[in-house]
Each structure stands twice: as C-alpha cells, then as structure tokens.
Specification:
With about 280 residues, the chain is an alpha+beta fold. It has three helices and six strands; from the N terminus they run αββαβαβββ. It starts with a helix and ends with a strand. About 20% of the residues are buried.
Amino acid sequence: MREEHGNLFWLSYADLMTALFIIALALFVLSYRMFKQHQLNLSAAEEKLRLRSIELDQQAQALETLRLRVSELDKQRAAMAALRRRLSEEELNASTLIQQLNDERARLAVMEAEYLKIQEIHKAIENLDSRFFVYQPAYKRHILRPQVQFKTGNSDIAPSYKPMLVKAGQALHKLADRLEPGDNIKYLLVIEGMASKDGYRRNYELSYERALSLFRLWQQEGIHFDQDRFEVMIAGSGTGGVGRDLRNEKNNQRFLIQIIPKVGELQTLQLSNHPDAGPHSPLSD
C-alpha cells in the first residue's frame, strides 16, 4: 500500500514538473517574442530618430544658409544705402558744380563783354587828335605834341605855349565826352610831367609841379572832366620812367597823357615809397 502511494506521488510530481516546464517554456517563448517585438520597435524608432536627426541637420544647414544669405542681403542693403547716400551727395556736388560753372560762365561772359568794351575804349583813346598828341602803343600813352620848354627849376608855363595847350585840353575833353558812359566802367586820367637830366636836384618835384600847372591851366579855361566818370591823377616821373628820348635829353621836358579804363569803382591808389616813383596826387575837378 505504501509502495503504491509512493509511486502515485512521483507520478503526480512528474506531471506537476512537466506542467511547470511547459508553463516556463510558454512564458519564455512569449517573453522572447515580446522582447523581439520591442527590439524591432526600438530599431524602428531609432531609425525614425536617425532620419529625423538627418532632416533636422538639413534644416539647420538650410537655416544657416538662409542666415548667411540674410546677412549678405543686409550687407548689400547697407551697401545700397551707402551708395544711395553717395549718389545723393554726388548729385548735390554735381548740382553745386553746375551752378558754379553757370555762375563762372556768366561771369566770364560779363568779363568778355567788359574786355571787348575796354578794347573799343582803347581804340577810341588811340584816336586822340593827332594834331596835339602822339600815341605810343608800346606804353599805351600819349605824348603831348607841343614841345614845351621850361626854364631850369621853373614850372610856370610860358604864355606862348598856352593857346596850343588849351586846344590840346579841349581835344582831350572832347574825346572824354565821346567815351561810352557805363555804371561799371570809370576812367583814370593821368597827367604826367617829365624832366630832362640837367643836374637839377628837384627834378622829380619839378616834373610834378609842371603837370599840375598844365592841369590848372585847363581848369582856368573851363576844361573840367566829369567827376562821376573820371579820376584825375597828377604825376611826375622826373628823370625816370620809360620811353625817354635818349638822343636829345631836352625833348624829355614833356607831358604824358594816359586814359585808363577801370572796371568797377576806382580804388584809392597805394603809393610806393620808392624814390623813383616821384610824387603823385589824385585830384578831382
């Protein structure tokens, strides 16, 4: 009886162990399948993540390219703004230069017109009555044709010369009246005396005094020059100056007449202190 009971135990035990083995095997197979499926899921997720990472890298590269492009566009925009400012400045400079050129062209046109007018005046001055005046083109001046002789150290004009000198003054006044008046052109009338080299120590002062005597003679005879158009200057060059007669020193006792057109208002002359300049004095009638 006990032997049969023992065999039954072992049979039951063997059945139990077999059942446990089958359960364990079934659990192992099930776990293996679950783990394998999970591994596949993880691999698929990893692949997705890898592809997503590649995509993000590409997007990052695209964004970096876009950022660089935006930066380049910003630089180009700044360059364009600087170029526009430069063009605006150049346009302003060009406009200023054009205005300056127009002003300069207008000024040159005025200067040309004034130059032509002065040339006409010079030609008119050259035609001063040849009975009384000799024109020297090299010095742009006239020599009073009557050869006036003075006593040494004396500035008084002898009565015999006065009628001819008065006629010369009248001819000069007539020419002055014919000169075209203009608000922008005035005239400087220089009456200059010269002296011969005779050893007299006051020849410079004497030449001035002789020119002054001629001017006063003309005033006494009613020969007056329009103060609004003419500035009269009395001068004495003594034994200096240019264009002297080197063959006959006595011929250098003479009067020189210069009519100088001036553009604009006549200014006070700045006198030189050089001893050869001689005394000068601007006078008005």
